[in-house]
Amino acid sequence: MSKSADKETVVFKARKLTKVYDMGEVKVHALRGVDLELYSGELIVLLGPSGSGKSTLLNIIGGLDTATSGNVTYQEQDITMASDEELTNYRRFHVGFVFQFYNLIPSLTALENVAVVTEIAENPMNPAEALRLVGLGDRLDHFPAQLSGGEQQRVAIARAVAKNPEVLLCDEPTGALDFATGIIVLEVLERINRELGTATVLITHNADIAEMADRVIYLSDGLISRVRINGHKKSPRELRW
After folding, report:
1. Cα separations (Å) of 143 from 86, 110, 112, 118, 155?
2. Does the CA dihedral 219-221-224-228 come out positive or negative?
3. Which residue has better confidence, 228 or 123?
4. Which domain holds residue 137?
């Protein structure tokens, strides 16, 4: 189940990545030439204000959006010019997504929400095992309405991890949660990164969360403004905001 955590192995490489949204008479430059590598087993935080390009970069890396120019390679395969079918398979088999909102199916139990993903994955975990990994082994038969917001987010993480992805992409995963619940969710993400070796990218506008990362990528106005390596990573329990 564990993956290699060799932080010298490049999982993603982005070169001169740009994204321009054509809004009629106005062109919005979301990315302006981004170069980035993501290594196996590391936890990266993308930090920056709203509109800095964080979500656009994550969506292109994850195959949810395409670049205007530049290229992205995943394990040395260029996904920039991939067809819709190729991108669908890429998302299905290699990438797990966690968003601010949980997107659970209300009529399915926690176990069934996770099983929906494992049924189409190549090398999935057992759904119950994935839920135990996020601390919900006693909530398998609960419906989303019977779970707290933090528990629903942990089901969403279990669903993303259950397909055994090489990469986990998280867009403001604690944005809708209070501090105490957010810490629990961050502990789950840290545990998955540490125990499974899943390369993890976490978007936030909260600078304190960056203290748990191996590397912090600062974005501003569609560009990487600086990169910081954390010599001493904090555990989620040490974070305060």
Report:
1. 33, 6, 9, 18, 10
2. negative
3. 228
4. 40-66+81-238
